[in-house]
Structure formats: structure tokens, C-alpha cells
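Per your request, structure below.
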């Protein structure tokens, strides 16, 4: 059989998606004779936002052979232990979605079932008191993960906030200087297709240069140059489920708090993010243009800044959803070119990461066996839908009275989400679905945060009496208090570990 190995890959776009793809592909394919080229337009900027991540980003760092400290030093990074949701259940309330677990499971019964049993017997201690990262985050502390956690109480994870522009620059330098990625500055004006196969054959730059490749990776942002425009793959629009379609972003100087978490504050027509970095705070209001004007949204954001504004408002428009196929013929899209889900749980960068990993797991040769793209597209669609459901729960669960929130509560929910809500409300069950990005503790944190209480607890929780559980629970709280008392401040952690020299 003739060697049909892919010989060249062209990545279109030099934003977070393009440079993340360049680094991971060049690292994993380094022993193969595959030339990787990244084309970036000097005229078209990057989206310029995307500062919060989820813990999986640290796997990406490992995969490309860099340390957390290196990335953080290069990108003014801070720690993220989770997200605080302010005013979501109702104005004046707050709860936390941690990257961690609650309590200790026993006899294969999840901890929250025992907690529920105690609650039904009159113990009103919030679930959050049994979660170490929540307790540390609320005190602006950073825990050092134990090498070997003795039980679930010590199990937690953490992610990173970074300056997206600096992160992309760090990745670009590495890709060019260490990994041999060819960097072409130029604006793609057209893509030509092979008449017989319909595959993309080459792209033409506005200065007349032409670049050919076997495999094209579309990282061109919302334009979706190759997948959307050239190959005309349609977009599945979820605006009817997640109505926010715009954002205004604006960094400001630091106020008092360097929080080791993202803050999300519900607003009249959407929600506002606050992401602390070492050198500034990132802020943005994600809103529904049907419910508030651009000017009002910008004014709301500006009025709430904790420090001096460091830039003009950056107005962004988006459409929630994804391309019906993210891999078509010889083109795979990553990042905004593939789809977009609002940044409520910081899932865009992790979708880029899982997209690259999935491409590597289904890496084609020049025959492009359709089964590879089919499986890639099946998994990708599920991954987007699972995250969409998790985001929808955020809008559905609260009690706010404004029009946007009332409409979201009245939505006809996708059956996959309705099923999860029934399972939790009925018996406190947290089912796992194929290709879930968010695990049971994340779903639990939202249900508990919205004070949705199951009708009954697991009958197997009766293996312990309420009194026995009371004693054990007090020990857990004491152990968490001890761990918290040993943690250092977030500032200290950054100063000692990651400070920019
Ligand atoms: P872009 O950054 O838009 O880059 C596109 C690239 O394509 C650019 O280099 C451009 O020059 C190039 N290009 C375009 N057209 C051409 C052409 N014709 N020729 C050559 N090159 C071209 N994600 C998170 O994970 N966490 C967050 O907190 C988060 N917050 C967000 C907030 C908002 C309001 C928005 C809109 C997004 C947010 N995201 C977040 C998503 C995140 O910003 C993106 O997923 C990430 O930046 C990747 O963008 P990208 O590289 O796909 O596109």
C-alpha cells in the first residue's frame, strides 16, 4: 500500500486556538515528516478575551512540555479554585462552584446523600462547609495539593486565569523557536477546492502567495473561513436556549482583592465576569441584546468597575451553537471557528484542547477515511450539548424576576437536561452521561447553590444513624478548618511561585 501519510498541515489563525494547536500538534507529531505552517493575518486581530480556564489546561501544559510556573510568569497568571456565583439564585445570594469534591463518600454512597439525610433531620449546615477549595477560596487562600490525599476531603483541583494575549505570544514563540512551526504573516483571501474530492487544496493570500496542505485546521475565529465559508458547513444555533448574544469587556486596575477564583455576578439581562490577573482585572458583561441595549450594558459594566478602567469597552457579538460538523473533508475547525458557548464556565479553551486531542486520536492519512470524521463529529456534538445543558441549568435554576430570567425558567428544556433535573429532584441522583465535561460534584454545586433539594435521600444512607453522621461530619469540618489554617494567601503563593521577575 502506498504511503498515504499526511505531509503538511496548515493552521489558519494565530489566536489561542491556532497557537494551542500548533504547539500540541508539533509536539506529538515531531517524529513524523509533517510540515506544520500557521498563517496569521496582521490585519485581523484576535478576539482578545478568554482569560479563565478549567483544570484540564494543566494537562495541556504537561502535554506540550511546559510548567505551570513558566506559563504563569509569561502571562501574569493567577490561581482559579472555582467560580463564585453572586446574585444568581436571587439578588444578595452567593454560592461557589469549586474544582473539588464535597465530603467523603462511604460504602459507595455519595457524601451528599448522607448530608441530605442530616438535613432532613434538621441539620442546616451548608454543603459548602464540606468542600476544602470552597473554604480556601472564600478566604483568598491557595492550598498546596497534598502528594497523596488521605481521603476525598483533600481531593481538589485548580485552574488558571491568564492574559490571553500574553499566553498566545508565549505559545507562538515556543512553536516557532522550539518546535519548528513555520509562521506565515498574511491574510487569506480565498481557499480553492479540489474539483473531484471537494477537499480544500490551497489557500491564497492577499499578496498573491498560495499555500497548499494535506490537512487544514481552521482557527480563524468567528469568521470560520474554511469550514463555514469555503466548505459551507451550517451552524446549529442555540440562541433560543441560551439567549445571550453579546458581551462588552473592559479591564481595570486592581481593587483590594486578588481572589483565587472567577466571580460571576448575575445582572438584569445576563451576567458579569470578574477575572483577577497579576497586573489587572478582566471584566465583562455578557448580555442578551433583546433585553438591554449596548449602551446600557456598557454603562452597567463601567459603573461596577472596582478600579480605574484600562481600556475602552470592547464590544463583541456572538451566536451560541456550533458547526453541525466540526470536521468536514480535510478540514477540522478549532476554537471560535468551530462554535461558541458563552464563557459562563470558561469552556472555550478546554474545547480547543479536547478538539486537538481528538484530532490526534483520530488522525487521518490522505485517504481521509470518513469513519474518522464521523466519530470525531459525533463526540464533538455530544461534548457541546453536555456543556450547553450545564450552562442552561445556571439560567433555569435561579429565582430572579427580570424578563430574561423568567423566560429562561419557562424554557422547554432539552430532554437530556430535564432528565438530570428529574433524577436530582427525585432522589438526589447525579447521572453521568457520555462525554460529560462536568462531573457530578459540579452539577451538585449548582443544584445545592440554587437550593434545589431532592425529595428523598438514598435509602442506603441509612447505614449510619443521624447521630453517627453528626459526629463524622464535625470531624470533617474540623479537618477542613485545619487544612485551611495551613494554607497561604493567594498573593503569597504567586509571589513565591510565579511572580513576574
Ligand atoms: P481568534 O482569537 O478570533 O483568532 C482568530 C485568528 O484568525 C486571528 O489570529 C486572526 O488574525 C486569524 N484570521 C482571521 N481571518 C483570517 C484571514 N482571512 N487570514 C489569516 N488569518 C485570519 N474562553 C475561555 O476558555 N475562557 C474565558 O474566560 C473566555 N471568555 C470569553 C469571553 C468572551 C466575551 C468571548 C467572545 C470569548 C471568550 N472565550 C473564553 C473564548 C476564547 O476567547 C476563544 O475560545 C479563544 O480566544 C480562541 O479564539 P480563536 O483563536 O478561535 O479566535
Amino acid at each position: 500500500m502506498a504511503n498515504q501519510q499526511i505531509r503538511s498541515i496548515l493552521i489558519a489563525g494565530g489566536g489561542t486556538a491556532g497557537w494551542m494547536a500548533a504547539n500540541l500538534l508539533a509536539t506529538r507529531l515531531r517524529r513524523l515528516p509533517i510540515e506544520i505552517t500557521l498563517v496569521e493575518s496582521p490585519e485581523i486581530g484576535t478576539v482578545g478575551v478568554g482569560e479563565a480556564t478549567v483544570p484540564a489546561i494543566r494537562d495541556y501544559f504537561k502535554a506540550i512540555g511546559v510548567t505551570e510556573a513558566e506559563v504563569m510568569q509569561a502571562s501574569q497568571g493567577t490561581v482559579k479554585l472555582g467560580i463564585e456565583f453572586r446574585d444568581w439564585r436571587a439578588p444578595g445570594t452567593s454560592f461557589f462552584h469549586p474544582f473539588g469534591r464535597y465530603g467523603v463518600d462511604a460504602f459507595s454512597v455519595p457524601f451528599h446523600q448522607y448530608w441530605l439525610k442530616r438535613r432532613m433531620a434538621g441539620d442546616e449546615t451548608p454543603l459548602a462547609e464540606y468542600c476544602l477549595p470552597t473554604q480556601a477560596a472564600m478566604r483568598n487562600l491557595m492550598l498546596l495539593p497534598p502528594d497523596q490525599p488521605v481521603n476525598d476531603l483533600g481531593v481538589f483541583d485548580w485552574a488558571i486565569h491568564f492574559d490571553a494575549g500574553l499566553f498566545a505570544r508565549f505559545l507562538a514563540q515556543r512553536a516557532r523557536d522550539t518546535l519548528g512551526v513555520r509562521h506565515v504573516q498574511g491574510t487569506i483571501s480565498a481557499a480553492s477546492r479540489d474539483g473531484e474530492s471537494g477537499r480544500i487544496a490551497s489557500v491564497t493570500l492577499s499578496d498573491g502567495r498560495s499555500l497548499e496542505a494535506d490537512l487544514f485546521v481552521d482557527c480563524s475565529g468567528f469568521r470560520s473561513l474554511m469550514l463555514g465559508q469555503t466548505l459551507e458547513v451550517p451552524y446549529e444555533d442555540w440562541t433560543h436556549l441560551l439567549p445571550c448574544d453579546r458581551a462588552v469587556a473592559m479591564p481595570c486596575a486592581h481593587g483590594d482583592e486578588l481572589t483565587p477564583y472567577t466571580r460571576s455576578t448575575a445582572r438584569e439581562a445576563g451576567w458579569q465576569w470578574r477575572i483577577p490577573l497579576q497586573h489587572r482585572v478582566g471584566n465583562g458583561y455578557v448580555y442578551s441584546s433583546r433585553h438591554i441595549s449596548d449602551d446600557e450594558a456598557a454603562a452597567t459594566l463601567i459603573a461596577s468597575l472596582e478600579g480605574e478602567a484600562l481600556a475602552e469597552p470592547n464590544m463583541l457579538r456572538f451566536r451560541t451553537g456550533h458547526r453541525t460538523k466540526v470536521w468536514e473533508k480535510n478540514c477540522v475547525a478549532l476554537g471560535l471557528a468551530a462554535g461558541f458557548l458563552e464563557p459562563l464556565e470558561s469552556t472555550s479553551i478546554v474545547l480547543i484542547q479536547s478538539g486537538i486531542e481528538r484530532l490526534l486520536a483520530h488522525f487521518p492519512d490522505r485517504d481521509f477515511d470518513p469513519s474518522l470524521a464521523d466519530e470525531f463529529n459525533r463526540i464533538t456534538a455530544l461534548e457541546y450539548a453536555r456543556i450547553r445543558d450545564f450552562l442552561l441549568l445556571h439560567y433555569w435554576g435561579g429565582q430572579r424576576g427580570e424578563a430574561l430570567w423568567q423566560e429562561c425558567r419557562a424554557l422547554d428544556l432539552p430532554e437530556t437536561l430535564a432528565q438530570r433535573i428529574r433524577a436530582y429532584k427525585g432522589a438526589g441522583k447525579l447521572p453521568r452521561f457520555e462525554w460529560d465535561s462536568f462531573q457530578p460534584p459540579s452539577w451538585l454545586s449548582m443544584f445545592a447553590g440554587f437550593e434545589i433539594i431532592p425529595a428523598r435521600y438514598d435509602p442506603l444512607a441509612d447505614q449510619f444513624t443521624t447521630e453517627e453522621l453528626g459526629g463524622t461530619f464535625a470531624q470533617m469540618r474540623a479537618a477542613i478548618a485545619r487544612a485551611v489554617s495551613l494554607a497561604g494567601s493567594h498573593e503569597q503563593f504567586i509571589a513565591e511561585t510565579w511572580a513576574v521577575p
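The CA atoms of residues 189 and 206 lie 5 Å apart.

Regards,
D.
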